[in-house]
Design brief:
Blueprint (H helix, E strand, L loop, with lengths): L8 H11 L2 H8 L6 H8 L4 E3 L14 E3 L2 E3 L3 E3 L12 H11 L4 E4 L6 H7 L4 E5 L6 H12 L4 E5 L9 H6 L9 H8 L2 H9 L22 H8 L6 H11 L3 E6 L2 H9 L4 E4 L13 H12 L4 E5 L5 H10 L3 E4 L1 H33 L12 E3 L2
Helix pairs in contact: 1-15, 4-15, 12-13, 14-15
Length: 383
């Protein structure tokens, strides 16, 4: 199979699995504990049905929307994800360039493989930066200041990772950053010689945005879970979020909001957006799916800030259902990471092309000329 033969999520997942060593593949693919929430994130979309309108003279539907002060050409964008150079040597650069080509948002993680400045130099497209609050608060100030100088459009603060979730697949595969060639994983790496060659001959693995602050996770073999538990501040609170909002003084989201009350409080402290997310089912297993919460949160605060659904999106119809329930846009992580692992920038472009085509086609089939016509009348819940 080649990238050009990939038509859906499972195609990209299958191709990525053939190219990535097991520890790397399962780091993308897995979730926390029994992975019930991981599965629920996508299955939740099956609990409602779309209701099309007929004879509406749609013509060419308008897929554009605006988030974080930037107009984007379709209502889906790339979630912030860490360490993308593990999946392809070009990592975040490939993702940012692909997003720019489709004029949609690229999101950068604090734990990215390339620096804020490097990405700013390769892409002038819409860009969002994701913060984590470290125990050393100077990290936060430094990252915000650098994003401002690099002309990022917005920031989001991830609030659901006070400690790392119990990702048992990573325990079994021995996943670490940087990867260690252990006896358990040696066969898997040996079966993926192109990945090993790329890893050994390209830029040395590093957490580029914080390498000048700490060597944790950069110069020593350290698991992701150990890094999170050692470096992230488990005492993070609403005051920390409000501090970041005021220091940034621009479009700002909390990522990881799952309750109506927290969404209301996000409005109160000055957020311009929230990302309804459970970290891709990688943190609290047994939690609600983002889609399950969209309608209630939109009913409560949908006129006060931008609502972004993050998690479980596999199809264009999932995006349409999320928007009909009250979201303004969606973001996804696993899908584009598999496409990145499958083919680098070309893979991500193929995925975005497929999603754009699905959204356009299904907008026409729904009888909707623009995204504002996707409202709660367009879906019926089965329960």
């Amino acid at each position: 199979m080649k990238v050009k033969d990939c038509y859906n999520f499972e195609d990209f997942r299958k191709l990525a699995k053939s190219k990535l060593p097991d520890p790397i593949f399962h780091y993308i693919d897995g979730g926390a504990d029994d992975e019930a929430t991981l599965k629920r994130n996508t299955n939740a979309f099956d609990d409602c049905d779309l209701v099309p309108s007929i004879l509406t003279s749609v013509g060419e539907p308008d897929l554009k929307t605006e988030i974080f002060g930037r107009k984007i050409d379709m209502p889906i964008f790339l979630s912030p994800t860490a360490m993308q150079s593990l999946y392809h040597p070009d990592g975040d650069k490939a993702s940012a360039r692909a997003a720019e080509k489709f004029n949609t948002m690229y999101s950068m993680s604090t734990m990215a493989s390339f620096s804020i400045e490097e990405i700013a130099n390769v892409s002038s497209g819409p860009k969002l930066f994701q913060l984590y609050i470290h125990k050393d608060k100077s990290f936060t100030d430094d990252l915000i200041d650098r994003c401002r100088r690099a002309n990022f459009d917005g920031l989001c603060l991830t609030v659901d990772t006070l400690v790392a979730g119990n990702r048992e697949r990573d325990h079994r595969t021995g996943f670490t950053t940087p990867p260690k060639f252990t006896l358990e994983s040696l066969m898997s790496f040996a079966m993926r010689p192109q990945w090993v060659l790329n890893y050994l001959t390209n830029k040395k693995f590093e957490l580029a945005n914080i390498k000048h602050k700490t060597d944790k996770g950069t110069n020593i073999a350290k698991s992701v879970i150990d890094y999170i538990n050692e470096q992230y501040d488990p005492k993070m609170n609403w005051s920390d979020a409000e501090y970041c909002i005021k220091k940034w003084n621009g479009p700002f989201a909390l990522k990881g909001v799952m309750s109506v009350e927290d969404a209301k409080r996000a409005v109160d402290i000055g957020c311009t957006a929230i990302m309804i997310s459970n970290h891709g089912g990688r943190q609290l297993d047994g939690s609600r799916s983002p889609f399950d919460q969209v309608k209630a949160i939109a009913d409560a605060v949908g006129d006060k800030l931008e609502i972004i659904l993050d998690g479980g999106v596999r199809r264009g119809t999932h995006v349409l259902k999320a928007l009909a329930a009250g979201a303004k846009a969606c973001s996804f992580g696993k899908a584009f990471l598999f496409s990145l692992g499958a083919g680098g920038q070309v893979g991500v472009e193929r995925l975005l092309h497929n999603m754009q085509a699905e959204i356009r086609r299904n907008m026409i089939l729904m009888g909707c000329k623009n995204l504002s016509e996707l409202n709660q009348d367009k879906i019926i819940y089965r329960r």
